[in-house]
Amino acid sequence: KIDYVLPESGTVTLKAYDMSGRLVETIVDANQEAGAYSTLVKSFAWESGMYLYVLTCNGNTISRRMLHQ
């Protein structure tokens, strides 16, 4: 589960990458209003290990690591 807050509305992309930089999945690609969101990652096909997710909205980007077991 990934939680995030948008201070303003905009086009949001949330993507997951493996640690070698390969795109694993685009989790969110949509216009969203300002507010708090919680997205459940359906990672059944992913191998166990460390991943990086990247959230982009209106030119602002954050990235965080997550562990999938």
Walk me through this protein's architecture.
There is one protein chain. The two termini are 13 Å apart. The chain has strands at residues 2-6, 10-18, 23-32, 35-39, 49-57, 60-68. Helices cover 0% and strands 68% of the residues. The mean pLDDT is 93. By secondary structure, it is mostly beta strands. It has no helices and six strands. The strands form two sheets. It has a four-stranded antiparallel β-sheet with strand order 3-2-5-6, with no helix packed on it. It has a two-stranded antiparallel sheet with strand order 1-4. The relative contact order is 0.34. A hairpin with a 4-residue loop joins β2 and β3 (23-32). The radius of gyration is 12 Å and the shape is elongated.
